[in-house]
Each structure stands twice: as structure tokens, then as C-alpha cells.
Specification:
CATH topology of chain A: MetI-like fold
Oligomer: heterodimer
Radius of gyration of chain A: 21 Å
Order of helices and strands of chain B: HEEEHEEHEHHHEHEHEEHH
Number of domains of chain A: 1
Order of helices and strands of chain A: HHHHHHHHHH
Structural class of chain A: mainly alpha
Low-confidence stretches of chain B: 1-16
CATH class of chain A: Mainly Alpha
Distance between the termini of chain A: 54 Å
Shape of chain B: globular
CATH superfamily of chain A: MetI-like
Largest sheet of chain B: 6 strands, mixed
Strand order of the largest sheet of chain B: 6-7-8-3-9-10
Mean pLDDT of chain A: 91
Bound molecules: adenosine-5'-diphosphate, magnesium ion
Largest interface: A-B, 22 and 33 residues
Low-confidence stretches of chain A: none
CATH architecture of chain A: Orthogonal Bundle
Strand content of chain A: under 5%
Shape of chain A: flat
Number of helices of chain B: 10
Number of helices of chain A: 10
Chain lengths: 229, 264
Amino acid sequence: MGDFLSQFAELFANYDVLGAFWVNIQLTFWAAIFSLILGTVLALMRISPIASLQWAGTAYVNILRNTPLTIIMTFMFLAVWTQLQIRMSDDFATNFFRFAVIGLTVYHAAFVCEAIRSGVNTVPLGQAEAARAIGLPFLPAARLIILPQAFRGAIAPLGNTLIALLKNSTVAAAASVSTETSTLMREMIESNSDLIYAIFMTFAIGFVILVIPIGLLTTYLSNRLAVRR
Amino acid sequence: MDHGEATTTTEPAGTSPTLGPPLVELKDVNKHFGDLHVLQDIDLTVRKGEVLVVIGPSGSGKSTLCRAINRLETIDSGEIRIDGQPLPEEGKALAKLRADVGMVFQAFNLFAHKTILENVTLGPIKVRRERTSAAKERALALLDRVGVKNQAGKMPAQLSGGQQQRVAIARALAMQPKVMLFDEPTSALDPEMINEVLDVMVALAKEGMTMIVVTHEMGFARKAANRVVFMSDGQIVEEATPEEFFTAPRSDRAKDFLSKILSH
Ligand SMILES: Nc1ncnc2c1ncn2[C@@H]1O[C@H](COP(=O)(O)OP(=O)(O)O)[C@@H](O)[C@H]1O
Ligand SMILES: [Mg+2]
């Protein structure tokens, strides 16, 4: 046991484990914010009365949700960076970090959209009708009446999407964000194959520590904020 | 002005004696839900200040009629006019029209995440662009009038059904509508709460509000209605004063229907 602990100590001394997790937290943070915005717009398109918007929203969700994330991330690197030569920052690392955020955002926005739509389904139709009946057009009705209730009904699935996003942020390695956890883990294993259990434990526990509070928080919030009918 | 059927009917005691010009006009209105012909050649005129009760068996198209009047449902053919204006297609003009037509639903449909006061002020502030303080003041006066002012800070789920429906009436009134539609406003209520809602509606009728009320409450129809229309299978089968309709229905379908609602 003591031996095991000293292995951890050695790993933490030689590698910036916390720094790597911090990169994943930052990727998750920004992608969560942007995918929440994009996902909300997509959900609005899908529940809007305009057929072409509905169609576009549905097409987006079906395409992005069914594309492996690795392919999206690789696309960000190969097509957007290498072929189109699009640069988002002069700093190499910042540039790839931003690509990774975009890749994570466009992918998870599809899931956020579906989570919000499941929230919309918890809002009785009469709420939208009452909003229309007092003269609110679609967007104000959505903003003031439907979405506030839908978000409360969508907290649990949104939490699940956030957890998936956090874990999927390790795929950012495919977009060449070289400082994040999965890259560090591979590096550590390559030069310390004798410590493989300790290395696995480090990352497994690290993610569990990050994920559990998200689950607890979303359960708490969805009970706390539930709309009483 | 010609003397249409509405003005020749005998007035129930106590209601506003003079009916104004046509406010809601339906001409040759038809609507289908797939194969179901839910509104069939509906012709109906409701004058300013008139209280019209719509009665008829479940599934006869009463709700669809109400919903068509503020365009929650579109119609296939025919014309609906409010205060002389044809119903707008979509957009701002339609939202404006809906603001002029108050609607009270069977299931109340109060905004579940807003307080009682916010439910009533939301329309005036967001649709009519009233100042918050003015909207609040008027909302409290309306809540007082329907007898739930002391509940203003609560959430809808904390109120009884009767209280919620009275708030829904206040919410509709806050828009200062030209006409109010009531779609079975008391059928979701426990019996002991029906009268508190009907009392508010009777008072409203006496103040001259133009009302179209889908209800089977004969007491309300007798007290407040100028006219009863009986709908069955998507058609208006019979029109009469409440007294005539309830004591001497002419059509077999109305007789049959009345015998069913009277037999318990
Ligand atoms: N959105 C809809 N789609 C299909 N059929 C509908 C819809 N709304 C109502 N109907 C049908 O239209 C008929 C009339 O309904 P409704 O107007 O609600 O009747 P009522 O209010 O008189 O009970 C019913 O047979 C009902 O099933
Ligand atoms: Mg009905």
C-alpha cells in the first residue's frame, strides 16, 4: 500500500497531472457554454413553427450526433487547419485549444438540443397556448414561458451531456491539444510501464472526482428547481 | 341598422340591454382534422356586449370554434372577423389580435413558473409595453376584483382550481380585450368551486363584456347569456334564448342532449 502511494507521489512529482486535468476542465467549460448556446438555438429551430428551420435543426442534430467525435476533431485539424489554413490565434497551442473547443461544441450542441427538447416535452401544451393567447409571438413565448420551464425539466439530461462532454474532452488529443489528460497518460505509460496500475488509477479517480459532483449537483438542482404543476 | 336575430331575442333581466355592432363574425367557416369535418359552414355573429353560450356534446367542435376565433387553429375556408378586421395570417398583426381576444381555458394554463401577480402583469408589460408599476397596480386591482389579491405572491400550484381559474380570468382581463372566450371554464373544477368562478363571469357579463362561453352550466346561461347556440357534429343546430332553449328545444339532437345532461 505504502509502495502504491509512493508510486503516485513519483508520478505527480514528474508529471503535471493536475495541469492536464485543468486543460480538460477548461475545454469542458468553454465547450459547455458554447454548446448550451448553440444547442438552445437548435432546439428553438426544431420547435419553431417554420418548416425550413425545423428541417435544418433536425438535419444538424442527426448528422452531428451520428458522427464519431474523433472524426469531427480530426476534421477540425486536417480540414480547417491544414487545408483551409484557418487560424484562430497566432499562438500554436491556443489555436488548437480553440479548434478543440469548436469541435466539442458542434458535436455536443446536438445532444444539448435533444436534452432541451426533452425538457420542452415536460411543459404542457397549454403553457404555449396561453402564451400565444395573450399575444406573445413565438420567440418571446419561447424565451419567457417555454424555455425557463424546459430548462428545469432538462437539468438531468443536460447534466448527463456535461458528463459526456468532460470525458469526451480527452478526444481533444485528436485535435492536437497536447497538454490534456489522455495525451499525458499515454506519455506516462510509455516511459513508466511498470507503474501502469498507478497511472490508470490516477486518471480513473481523477475523472470520478470530477464527474460525481456534476451528477450530485444536477440531481439536487432538478429536484430543487422542478416546476410544480 | 337591421334587426338581426341577436337584437330581437328577449333580454334576460339584468344584462346590458343594448347590443352594439357586430364584434365577432364567422362566415361560412369550415375546418377539417384529416377526414373529420369538425366545423361545417359555421355562420355566427356576436355583437358588442353580447354574451353567447355555446353548448353541445363532447367532440362537437366547441373548443375548435373558440380556438379558431383567436387563430390557435387555422381554418380551411370561410372568414372570421374581429371588430371588422379579418384574422391576420401570422406575425405581429396576429399577436396584436390575440391580445384583443381574451381566452380562458378549461385547464387554467397559468404560467407555472411565475407568481400569480407575474401571470397577470406579463401580458401588459411584454405585449402592451406598459410600465411595470402601472401594470402591477392594475393587476392587483384585477386580482382584488376576482377575489384572490391576497394570493398575489404565490405560485399557481399553491392555489385551488377555482382560485387559479379566477386568476386566469384576471390575466385575460389585464389585456383589456374586446371579447373574452371561455372554453368550459368550470369543467375541470371540483363542484364546490364552480360558483366562485361563475360569479366572476356573471359580474363580467353584467359590466357589458362581450363573451363567448362554452359551458353546460344552465344557471350561468339563464343568468347571463343573451343567446345559446347548440352545436352538434360540427354544425350549429339551434340558436335560441336560454329560456327557449332549455324549456323548449326544437331539434331532436338538442332534446336528446338536454335529456342527457338533465338526467343526473
Ligand atoms: N388537433 C386535433 N387533431 C385532430 N383531431 C382533433 C384535434 N382537436 C380536436 N380534434 C377532434 O375534433 C373534434 C372536435 O373537438 P373539440 O373542438 O375539442 O370538441 P368539443 O370541444 O366540442 O368537445 C373531436 O372529435 C376531436 O377529437
Ligand atoms: Mg372542448
